[in-house]
Amino acid sequence: xxxxxxxxxxxxxxxxxxxxxxxxxxxxxxxxxxxxxxxxxxxxxxxxxxxxxxxxxxxxxxxxxxxxxxxxxxxxxxxxxxxxxxxxxxxxxxxxxxxxxxxxxxxxxxxxxxxxxxxxxxxxxxxxxxxxxxxxxxxxxxxxxxxxxxxxxxxxxxxxxxxxxxxxxxxxxxxxxxxxxxxxxxxxxxxxxxxxxxxxxxxxxxxxxxxxxxxxxxxxxxxxxxxxxxxxxxxxxxxxxxxxxxxxxxxxxxxxxxxxxxxxxxxxxxxxxxxxxxxxxxxxxxxxxxxxxxxxxxxxxxxxxxxxxxxxxxxxxxxxxxxxxxxxxxxxxxxxxxxxxxxxxxxxxxxxxxxxxxxxxxxxx
Length: 365
Known about the structure:
This protein is mainly α and 365 residues long. The chain has helices at 39-49, 54-70, 81-93, 99-116, 142-149, 154-166, 170-174, 208-227, 239-242, 277-290, 299-312, 317-324, 329-339, 349-355, and strands spanning 3-4, 26-27, 35-36, 181-182, 187-190, 199-202, 262-263, 270-271.
């Protein structure tokens, strides 16, 4: 029998899946036995072993926790397809979540059972799924983009301009490093984008001077940080172990670092992370309001507008697909629907009444 260590007297036998490990911690062979990792820690280890993103890890942990709490803190190894179905169906019926949200919850549970507990999930029965809505993306026209950008200043203006001018996602923009900007080749290299893919997109000519001036100021700040004994940045894929001096090199620094250095409370070390996404999101939201727009525009709207305006200018959809980093061209084709004139090319019959010109409509019985 395995025992769950929760800080209170609580135990239950494990059955069902062969995979070890209860929700928190397990002692084998009673109190004197060795500890096994907690279930959620094993989930984190499995996700990181596959080099999935941190956001994927956060989302999966969230849904697995909700699944366990929904079933009165029962261990997932004691449950199966009926419990998964009972958990997923209310998401669509009661909470009325979007189809993508319900699919994410299902993906989290499938990952738990397949890759952590070692169980294959079978028939989920009559799971009621949220209906996937078919909505057109919110896109700004060129005048609206110009109006929003006019209400942004400094690095916020530069970040928003890059999202629109290069088709960057918000986090792709914030995670840019100095070495990713190629001024000579007029290119921006996006590292580890969505789907862990690298891609190359354009560097807008109109932003080169502002970006170079921005980097000159940052380099002076970085050199001062180095003189103060800091100036080291977090490296991807633990490259600092292979290249110990790399974190202090200029080429690895963030293009958009935080204004103030953060302090590690454990080690006392100081450094600069990139700007937090919430700061940019708040600035864009305020700029949209100040511009008097009624559209629900966000940071991602700049990327959508980038794609739509390129297609409207006649660029090949495959080229736009590569610039955006879409895996499937069908995703890019979504923006062609925004370009369809639809009812814009049809004159309303009430307009004929206002102009006093008779229409060609005749009533027949």
